[in-house]
Write a structure and sequence with these properties.
Keywords: Monooxygenase, Oxidoreductase. This protein has 108 residues and is an alpha+beta fold. It is 31% helix and 34% strand.
């Protein structure tokens, strides 16, 4: 994929008000997706499986909490463990020790 195609693909969600991560496929990615579904019960969490990666799309805003991931993994978890599988994301990102939030900056 060219740099232009990658930038276009990453930006596609914004034109539709969709936000969320693009995760490298694997066990942790599956756990993060399930945690996002649990942490956003009123949102439609869409996952596009491209084999090598999972594109998660949620309208407007979504959050994934450390506590939910720990519950699913049954072990302690630090949010920085997401970084190696986070290939890209749509929207803005807010990362703390307790959660990662993807959202649209409505001020623009």
């Amino acid at each position: 994929m060219t740099a232009t195609a990658a930038a276009t693909a990453a930006g596609e969600g914004l034109s539709n008000n969709l936000v969320g991560p693009v995760l490298r496929a694997g066990e942790l990615a599956e756990v993060v997706v399930e945690a996002m579904r649990r942490d956003n019960p009123d949102a439609e969490v869409n996952v596009i499986d491209k084999r090598a990666y999972l594109r998660v799309q949620v309208l407007g805003e979504c959050i994934v909490r450390r506590a939910t991931i720990e519950e699913l993994l049954r072990r302690p978890f630090i949010m920085q463990e997401i970084e190696p599988i986070l290939a890209s994301f749509a929207g803005q990102i807010e990362a703390t020790e307790r959660y990662v939030r993807f959202f649209l900056d409505q001020r623009r």
